[in-house]
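Practice problem: predict the structure.
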Amino acid sequence: GRGANVAIVTSVGPVSVAFRLAVGCDIGRAMGQMMTTNNASVTELWYSPDRLSLGRYNVVDHLPPQAVTKL
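Answer:
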């Protein structure tokens, strides 16, 4: 419903598609971002009926430094 928070656990492919939709970039840039995405990172999207925005991308503050790895 309205105002609800939803958590989705997924892989980097869907995250890169959401990134592309939120920032309006071309597929080349989205693919470049995909290759720099950390495993187990957090991406936050803000949705309203007329807009999708990127709140946070590739955040790894919840992980110890030795656990941060790339795709």
